[in-house]
Amino acid sequence: MTGRHDDEFTEFASTKIATMRRVAYLLCQDWQRADDLVQAAITRLYVRWDRARTLEHVDGYARMILVREYLGERRSGWARRVALDAAVPDTPGPVPDRDTALDLRAALASLPPRQRATVVLRYYCDLSVEQTAELLGCSTGTIKSQTAKAIQTLRGRLGPAQASAAPSALPSFSRAERRQHG
User: Fold this and answer.
1) Is the same domain home to 31 and 14?
2) What does the alpha-carbon distance between residue 74 and residue 133 come to, in Å, rounded to a whole number?
3) The CATH number of the domain where 19 resides is what?
C-alpha cells in the first residue's frame, strides 16, 4: 500500500474506532473482547483497504466486517471452550439510569448471538431490515423474526417494571407497526 493509502486508512480508522468499539461491546458484552474484535476487524479492513476505500459506504463495510468477526468467533470452538466470567466493567462516560442500563445489558447479553446482532444493528446502529439482512447474509423475514423473538425475550426478562422505566430502550410497536418494521 502506498503512503497515501496508509494515511487514508489511518484517518478512517482513527475516526471510526470509538464507534466500532461501542458496537463490538454491545455485541459481546466485554470491553476486552470488544477491543479484540475491533482489532481483528480493523486488520481485515486494512488488508482490503484498496477495494474498501472505493465503496460508497465504507462505514457499513467496516461494520459488516466487525459483525462477521463477532459471529465467526461465536461459531468457533474457542467460544465454547473459554468462559470469560469477569465482573461487568465500568462504562465509559455518564449513564443516566445506571440500573436500567445494566439490566438491559444483562438481558441483551443473554440473547443468542444472531438475535443480539440483529437487535444491535437494528436499534443501536439504526439500520433498516433490508440493510441488516444484507449485512448478516440472510432474508428480511429472518431479520424480522429474529428481531421479534429478541424483543419478546428482552421484554420477558426485563419485566413490566424495567420496560416501563426505560420506554425508549425497548421499542413498543402496535401490531401494524410490527408488520411494517419487523
Assistant:
1) yes
2) 19
3) 1.10.1740
Evaluate if pTM is beyond 0.85.
no
CB neighbour list of residue 34: distance below 8 Å, 6 or more residues apart: 21, 24, 25, 27, 28
- Out of 58, 88, 118, a domain closes at 88
Collect contacts of 82-90 with beta carbons under 8 A, ≥24 apart.
Answer: 84/30, 84/32, 84/33, 86/30, 86/32, 89/30, 89/31
Residues 139 and 69 in one domain: no
CA distance 162 to 157: 9
Tell me the per-residue pLDDT of 83-130, one tens digit each, with 9 for 90 and over. Answer: 556 666 666 655 567 788 788 888 999 999 999 999 999 988 989 999
75 is written with which cell numbers? 461459531
79 closest CA partner among 138, 132, 37: 37
State pLDDT tens for residues 4-37.
878 889 999 999 999 999 999 999 888 999 999 9
